[in-house]
Amino acid sequence: MDLYLDNAATSFPKPEQVYRAVEHTMRQVGVSPGRGGYGRGIDASRLVFEAREAIAAFFGIADSSRVVFTHSATEALNLAVRGLLRPGDHVVTTTMEHNSLARPLQEMSGKGVDVTWIEADAEGFVDPSRIRAALKPSTRLVALSHCSNVTGTVQPVEEIGEITRSAGVRFLVDAAQSAGHVSLDVERMSIDLLAAPGHKGLLGPQGTGFLYVREGLRLEPLQTGGTGSSSQSLEQPESMPERYESGTLNLPGIAGLKAGVEYIRQVGLQEISRREKSLLQKLIDGLEGMPQVVIHGPRNHHKQCGVASFTVAGTDASHIGFLLDRDHGISVRVGLHCAPLAHKTIGTFPAGTVRISPGCFNSEEDIDLLLAALRIIIASC
């Protein structure tokens, strides 16, 4: 048996059309977009444009040129943070952040940026009123994750967006764990910067991601170089999205990402979300029936997004993960999940937790197998 339950890290398997799109692009297109006026080059540029349009439509983005392709959500978050903030600026964030956001913010704090860390409660929730109270005249940005990669806790992004919009503060949302799982609309949620990976809920390949940049917002690029446009100038172009896409784009990956988004639209985001929430609730119910298990997070699929974390009294999380893999062929994630502040917040630092993250291709039988394996392991510990 080989059972994969670590979709919060990377979704697996992918839809068949994603594999086909990647292979077709490598075999039949095979060239760099924006680098030639010949037929294949035009085909490559068209594919990138269509992928940009698909992502824009999926997230309620009116102008697809505001979608910047990156190689990961981490790169997208770094572009947003480093590209926007300057010494003297103030940022509000939370203690539930992944290191892909927390580390750039921490580094910027050493360069004259004032960072306020709002502590979440024991279930990982952040009270919007605390964010409102933390705003200052110098506040430039509120930055946080939509959904915790540790507890699955979903933050009230729409309510927070209303706060930032009324205060004239920019709003950056890390959608690493929510994109492709729940509805996201940048206008409805007043989001100015949206970062997401392609390889998780959007069902695309690794090495893909994007950053949405609201019109009127200018960032300094992370890197400069060839863009396939404005080649007569030694200055980085101002036009979107070329300003932030120096170098050769990952065309096969972008083709796969486009196919992943199209698959979600075909099946229906609501249907995928319904399936995943049903699996999550079944998992939570099963874990709650084990007296030795402590669940860390909301314990309610209406307040969670695809992730459940737990510990077992008297047993190290890494040992549970090892036995699940060795004896039962079940892949889960253990440890701190690149989010030490979140674990300090919920009281599981430094040992961490066992994290289970079902995906849209898992079944109720998969959850039954996991729960049965856990009962065997706990009984033997």
List the helices and strands and how they pair.
Blueprint: E1 3-4, H1 16-29, H2 39-58, E2 67-70, H3 73-84, E3 90-94, H4 99-109, E4 114-118, H5 128-134, E5 139-145, H6 157-167, E6 170-174, E7 193-197, E8 209-213, H7 251-267, H8 269-288, E9 293-296, E10 308-312, H9 317-328, E11 330-331, E12 333-335, H10 340-346, E13 353-356, H11 364-380
Parallel strand pairs: 1-11, 3-4, 3-5, 5-6, 6-7
Antiparallel strand pairs: 2-8, 7-8, 9-10, 10-13, 12-13
Helix pairs in contact: 1-7, 2-7, 3-4, 8-11, 9-11
Shape: globular
- The proportion of residues forming helix, as a percent range, comes to 25-40%
Series of H and E elements? EHHEHEHEHEHEEEHHEEHEEHEH
CATH topology of the largest domain: Aspartate Aminotransferase, domain 2
CATH architecture of the largest domain: 3-Layer(aba) Sandwich
Ends: how far apart?
A: 22 Å
Could you walk me through the main structural features you see in this protein, from its secondary elements to its overall organization?
By secondary structure, this protein is α/β, with parallel strands linked by helices. The chain folds into two domains: 3-12 and 269-380, Aspartate Aminotransferase, domain 1 (Alpha-Beta Complex); 16-267, Type I PLP-dependent aspartate aminotransferase-like (Major domain) (Aspartate Aminotransferase, domain 2, 3-Layer(aba) Sandwich), CATH 3.40.640.10. Helices cover 39% and strands 15% of the residues. The chain is built from eleven helices and 13 strands. The chain has helices at residues 16-29, 39-58, 73-84, 99-109, 128-134, 157-167, 251-267, 269-288, 317-328, 340-346, 364-380; strands at 3-4, 67-70, 90-94, 114-118, 139-145, 170-174, 193-197, 209-213, 293-296, 308-312, 330-331, 333-335, 353-356. A seven-stranded mixed beta sheet has the order 2-8-7-6-5-3-4, sandwiched between helices. The chain has a four-stranded antiparallel beta sheet with strand order 9-10-13-12, covered by helices on one side. The protein has a two-stranded parallel sheet with strand order 1-11. Helix 1 packs antiparallel against helix 7 and helix 9 (317-328) crosses helix 11. The protein is globular and about 70 Å long. The model has no long low-confidence stretch (mean pLDDT 95).
